[in-house]
Design brief:
The structure holds 2 protein chains of 2 kinds.
Chain A: H1 10-32, H2 40-54, E1 58-61, E2 64-67, H3 71-78, H4 82-96, H5 105-124, H6 134-163, H7 170-205
Antiparallel strand pairs in A: 1-2
Chain B: H1 14-17, H2 20-36, H3 43-57, H4 61-85, E1 90-94, E2 97-100, H5 101-126, H6 130-139, H7 144-173, H8 184-211, H9 228-251
Antiparallel strand pairs in B: 1-2
The chains are: A mainly alpha, B mainly alpha.
Chain lengths: 212, 252
């Protein structure tokens, strides 16, 4: 899901930083509107680290295993802190593991973080069912998780299609895009189910984590 | 996971001694200048520039190679796909496979930029402790909330990573294998447990921070002092970056 350095033109990388700056500004503005914005920082920071660590868990999809992106779950649990959390997580991945990149940090944050904010809004629909509703939490958790990775995948594929080498065989390009898009459908389902299961676990064990 | 990024930040080299704000701005400008390049004739100069930076940093070569290993898999995939899928001019054929000239040139461009940008990034964060780098970013205008979240997340990253390893070991000792999709529910509970533990720890951390005066504005500007040699380095790298961009525009 992360676009590495060297692939995208500098103009797209700078555009990514501009998009990430706007999304960060929007998130920080919403955070500052809270009664005591600093009170939420330790919670958001430790949960950022926890999400970063949770994304290392191998999910078995025989015959292979995958790592989940968890941007939908991040949006559901962290709300407006989700975008800064994703930006920080991607920064750590770029400088500690060289996964992703410094030039593509803005692009990666925008394509993963903006869907996380949308997932947050989607997850809030559960309030219509009542905050204790397992059905509402499970359903909205699934939609938030699936939409988070689905939208991110569409954004990454669109970026790659528009910036791929111009002389790529059109048939090969089309086949690769269809294959990549199809490969993400089962991942959307897995991420959706996983997000719903974690949301239900939190509803049972620590419901305060799901409250806005 | 070991905190290997800070392994060589205590070495002594001009790059280690460079004022962190000047180093951060200079090397980020250079990295973006690298990403601007499209002309193949500039690639050897770009590789030489990043190699020179690495040489001056006195970081061991083994450190660079170990850090390039993981992202190197990406380069391997590109190296297999591009020459076989991208292009209109046949370079040569191996059985049913055709190797295209344009794909090979694209591979050269992407590969060289990838290695150069990564090397410059490794020099930047391999010669500056992460905490100092974040303080420098804050001094350059990074919002306080982002800086505090980055420092706190980094502080607890390895601790929470250790918690995950303990939980996974405990699950294995109790017979959990997790080889099928049926284990998704157990793995979701594992993730949930990590989140709940972190949340509970955060409450204690917040109270302890408040007792120590958390909430006062901290300024990192006084921590850094720019010397003439720092400005000279900044100017030299800016000129090099401008040279790369100008050469690219002229060659186009």
């Amino acid at each position: 899901m992360h676009i590495p350095d060297g692939i995208l033109p500098a103009s797209v990388c700078l555009g990514g930083y501009a998009a990430a700056a706007v999304a960060t500004w929007y998130s920080l503005r919403k955070i500052r509107q809270k009664e005591d914005p600093r009170a939420g920082i330790p919670k958001a920071s430790l949960l950022t680290a926890a999400f970063f660590v949770a994304s290392w868990i191998h999910i078995p999809v025989p015959p292979i295993s995958v790592h989940l992106v968890l941007n939908g779950l991040l949006g559901a649990v962290l709300g407006y802190y989700a975008f800064p959390a994703i930006l920080i997580g991607l920064f750590f991945q770029a400088v500690i593991f060289q996964h992703g990149g410094l030039t593509t940090l803005g692009v990666n944050a925008a394509v993963i973080g903006v869907p996380a904010i949308l997932s947050y809004y989607l997850f809030q629909v559960r309030n219509l069912f009542g905050q204790d509703s397992r059905l509402g939490t499970g359903l909205c958790g699934f939609l938030a998780g699936a939409a988070g990775i689905g939208l991110a995948a569409v954004a990454v594929l669109t970026l790659l299609i528009t910036t791929l080498p111009a002389h790529l065989d059109i048939e090969v390009e089309r086949a690769s895009i269809y294959a990549l898009a199809l490969a993400h459908v089962p991942l959307m389902v897995i991420e959706g189910v996983f997000t719903a299961l974690v949301a239900l676990f939190l509803l049972r064990v620590k419901p305060v984590l799901l409250e806005d | 996971m070991k905190p290997r990024l800070d392994e060589y930040t205590d070495l002594d080299s001009p790059l280690h001694r460079w004022e962190p704000r000047a180093k951060l701005v200079s090397l980020m400008v250079l990295i973006f200048a690298f990403s601007f390049l499209r002309d193949l004739r500039l690639l050897p100069v770009m590789l030489a520039a990043s190699g020179f930076l690495y040489f001056v940093s006195r970081l061991p070569l083994s450190f660079l190679l170990s850090r390039l290993r993981l992202p190197g898999f990406f380069l391997l995939v590109v190296a297999v796909l591009l020459p076989l899928c991208s292009g209109t001019t046949v370079l040569f054929e191996i059985g049913p496979l055709t190797v295209w000239k344009e794909g090979c040139l694209d591979l050269l461009l992407i590969g060289a930029k990838f290695v150069s940008i990564l090397t410059a990034g490794i020099v930047l964060f391999g010669t500056t402790p992460l905490l100092t780098a974040v303080k420098a970013m804050r001094a350059l205008g990074l919002p306080a909330i982002l800086a505090e979240m980055t420092l706190l997340s980094y502080r607890y990253l390895y601790e929470i990573g250790g918690d995950l390893r303990c939980l996974e070991r405990a699950m294995r000792l109790r017979g959990f294998r997790g080889r099928s999709l049926g284990s998704l529910s157990t793995l979701a509970s594992l993730s949930g447990t990590i989140l709940v533990r972190s949340y509970e720890q955060a409450e204690g951390v917040y109270k302890a921070m408040v007792l120590r005066g958390y909430g006062q504005e901290a300024s990192f500007r006084e921590e850094f002092q720019v010397r003439p040699q720092d400005l000279a380095g900044l100017l030299a790298v800016f000129l090099a970056a401008a040279g790369f961009v100008a050469a690219e525009i002229c060659l186009q």
